[in-house]
Design brief:
By secondary structure, the chain is an alpha/beta fold. 18% of the residues lie in helices and 31% in strands.
Length: 347
């Protein structure tokens, strides 16, 4: 099976985390979000990927290359200018001759992709849209559907709520639909392609298979997905904190006098110094060093970070390559260039 991932967005609402890398490459529990998505697709039988890229695409190419290290075949299609979601899908048309998945690359969910494909075939739909239920859909575009789970209308930010189901950003397309999308134009799949398919009397089915869903589009939600992982609300394949409090990857080194207060995730080559106290709710990324007698809690540290001895850190997100030398950091986003204090990092 094949899948198209839309990975060209700039991730402006995630800045400064996305100042140095594209949004799909931000790490979630020590691995890039896109890596986690591709591994999930692979487990469901997807072995060929098309990545529609634009912003900082070199970071994606250098990590995934041709996909062979990940057991997949990966194609890259670059946009010369932003084409919108519909235009990006059209731009990749030549790669698809059978039913295929389309995903927004900032989504993390536990959707059953195999079940969704079976459902799509059973419904004989032209498009299937995965939906997720939210308590208050007034800030979203909602999807209304009939008793047979076929879409009847799309409504943007409705005042009168008739449906609590919103578009989850995960689709299955039949290739023939792509022939209806104009080439070389900025087109929205949500506002133009889907309504056009309904006008043509084609079938759009609704799939309710998302029990956990989050779009990691803001700093608040980036913190939330880690909190959900630590509390067990969302379980990553190789990490289940309900069963085990500490996870450490290859060559992580922990001083005998250090204290780890789970849940804690240590990346490959992470080092925890003498007398340091790490946790709860802490990610220490690959090759990051926590100095002697540090105290780190409720924080996500990316890769190649050095925290000097004696530093205290609480509710922080720290990006790649930072050297942390102040006596304390609290409620902060830290990059090599800036320290930005914020009040809503709750990990």
């Amino acid at each position: 099976m094949k899948a198209l991932l839309l990975v060209g967005g700039k991730g402006t609402r995630l800045r400064p985390l996305t100042d140095g890398l594209p949004k799909p490459m931000v790490p979630v529990m020590g691995k890039p979000l896109l890596d986690r998505t591709l591994q999930t697709l692979k487990r469901h039988g997807v072995d060929e990927i098309v990545l529609s890229t634009c912003y900082k695409s070199e970071a994606i190419r250098s990590y995934f290359k041709d996909g062979s290290d990940f057991g997949m075949k990966i194609h890259y299609v670059d946009e010369d200018f932003p084409l919108g979601t519909g235009g990006a899908i059209k731009n990749c048309e030549k790669y698809f001759d059978d039913s295929f998945f389309v995903l927004n690359a900032d989504i993390l969910s536990n959707i059953d992709f195999s079940g969704m494909m079976r459902y799509h075939k059973r419904k004989k739909a032209d498009i299937t849209i995965a939906v997720t239920r939210v308590a208050n859909p007034s800030a979203y575009g909602v999807i209304e559907y009939d008793k047979n789970s076929f879409v009847t209308s799309f409504r943007e930010k409705p005042k009168k709520i008739l449906s609590h189901y919103i578009n989850a950003g995960i689709y299955i397309f039949e290739p023939k639909v792509l022939r209806q999308i104009p080439s070389g134009q900025k087109i929205s799949v949500e506002r133009e392609v889907f309504p056009g398919v309904l006008e043509n009397k084609q079938k759009i089915a609704v799939y309710k298979g998302c029990h956990y869903w989050i779009d990691i589009g803001t700093l608040r939600k980036y913190a939330m997905v880690h909190r959900d992982g630590f509390t067990g609300r969302y379980q990553l394949p190789e990490v289940n904190f309900r069963q085990r409090a500490i996870y450490s990857q290859l060559n992580a080194k922990i001083s005998g006098s250090a204290t780890l207060r789970g849940p804690v995730y240590l990346g490959a080559g992470a080092q925890i110094g003498d007398g340091a106290i790490v946790g709860p709710h802490v990610v220490v990324g690959n090759n990051s060093i926590i100095g002697n007698k540090c105290a780190i809690s409720y924080s996500v540290l990316w890769d190649n970070i050095h925290v000097a001895s004696g530093v205290k850190m609480d509710e922080c997100i720290v990006t790649n390559g930072c050297y942390m030398e102040r006596s304390s950091y609290c409620h902060a986003i830290c990059t090599p260039d800036i320290v930005k204090n914020i009040s809503y990092v709750a990990i």
